Amino acid sequence: MTLLDINGVSVNFPFTPYACQVDYMTKVLTCLQNSQNGVLESPTGTGKTLSLLCASLAWQESRKAQVELNRQSGVAAVLAASGSGNETEDMDRLLGSLSTASGASWGSEQFFVPKIIYASRTHSQLSQAVQELKRTAYNSVKSSVIGSREQLCIHPQVQKLTSNAAKVQMCRQKVAGRHCHYYNNIEGNFLRE
Asked: Where are the transmembrane segments (predicted)?
C-alpha cells in the first residue's frame, strides 16, 4: 500500500498511483471537502473506480475522525463549564448538552458523517467496483449492492422468463398478491427484528 497525503487527507492506494490518478483523487477530495458536485472524466483504463473509491473512503475516514474530535471537545467544554462539584448534576447537564448537540439546533454539521452511495448504470460495473474495493485498505467498509429484479429476484418462475419487462411484471404481481414466499419470508423476518 502507498500512503498519500492529498489535500490534507491520508489516502491509502494499493500501489504507486499514476499522475492522472493523483489528479483525479485531488479533484474528488476538493469536491468532498467543499460540499460541491463534481463531473470528472478520464479515459478508459486509467483507474477511475479505484481512485474514486480510495479518495472518497479516505475522506470519510478523515471526516469520522473529525466528528469524534468535535464530540470529545464538546463534552470537555461542557464538563469544564459545569464543574459544580456535584457529579450527578454535572452528568445531567452533560446529557442535556449532548442531546442538544445531536439535534439540528447546535452545529449538527459538526457531528455528521455522510454515507457514500456508489451508483452505476450496469450490474457488472457494480461488481467491478466491489472487486476493486476488496483490493484496497478500505476492504472492511460495510457495503451493500442494490440491484434490479432482473439481477436479484430468485423466484424460479420469474427467472425462467426471458424479457426483463415480463420479469418485472410477474415479480410485482407475486409480491402484490402475496404469492412470493421469498419476499414474504424477508418481510416477516424484517418485522420480527
From this structure: none
β-strands 9-13, 2-6 pairing? antiparallel
Measured distance CA(151)–CA(125) in Å, rounded: 13
CB of 50 closer than 8 Å to CB of 14: yes
Distance (Å, whole) CA 183 – CA 6: 45
pLDDT tens sequence across 104-121 = 444 556 678 889 999 888
Q: How far is CA 131 from CA 19, 115, 144, in A?
A: 23, 20, 13
* Entry pTM: 0.67
Chain segment 93-102, per-residue pLDDT in tens: 655 655 544 4
Q: Identify the helix (H) or strand (E) that includes residue 5.
A: strand 2-6
* DSSP 8-state secondary structure symbol assigned to residue 178: T
Check if the beta carbon of residue 183 is closer than 8 Å to that of residue 174. yes
**Which element (helix H / strand E) includes 2?**
strand 2-6
- Contact criterion met (CB below 8 Å) for 40 and 28: yes
The number of residues in the chain equals 193
